[in-house]
Amino acid sequence: MKNAVVLVSGGMDSAVVLALAREEGFAVHALSVSYGQRHTSELQAADRVSKTLGAVAHKTVVVDLRAIGGSALTDATIEVPEAGGQGIPVTYVPARNTIMLSIALGWSEVLDAGAIFCGVNAVDYSGYPDCRPEFIAAFESLANLATKAGVEGAGVRIRAPLLHMSKADIVREGMRLGVDFSQTVSCYRADAQGLACGHCDACHLRAAGFNDAGVPDPTHYT
User: Fold this and answer.
1) pLDDT (tens digit, 9 = 90+) per residue, 50-72?
2) pTM of the entire structure?
3) Does residue 220 form part of some domain?
4) Distance between CA 185 and CA 39 in Å, rounded?
5) What is the pairing mode between strands 157-159 and 2-7?
């Protein structure tokens, strides 16, 4: 089987991506990053999802972004806002996707993996600059310039299969693949048990996705 590294956050999008990679026949090496996020229950969800969906391994790498701050997800003095608002929200974590993909790139070289999968989405997203198609294309170019695999081998593809899907599309795809969405955690203010607040941007996007797909929402709320 071909190896692939799949970034798994514990949320619904990355669970669907993991299932898609498995459907394509990849031996999935799931990677989560403990970056100092306040909603750490998503890391427990990532472990559940990885095991349930058949990853051959699941690794969690610690990179504490609280040291630089600048985001409501890593700095307890910045309030996680209700849904809505203009511009790039305070829940944006500076350089997070760049850092996560860089770690995944390193592991892909060790595994001789030709693909890295991630769950970024440019349709129903919160305005994050590192969820755009241009970012994915630019990182793939970097990956094939900066690695031994890129210079001597076949290189690596950065796969973002959900990039142009709506949240409803993602729900429907997950249902087709047999993803148990009740195991996932998306909320920015989830408690230690993974219960969602129901009010933040992530909760609103998730709830709208299930509603638009006509699928009962299995999210556990406080």
Assistant:
1) 999 999 999 999 999 999 999 99
2) 0.95
3) no
4) 9
5) unpaired
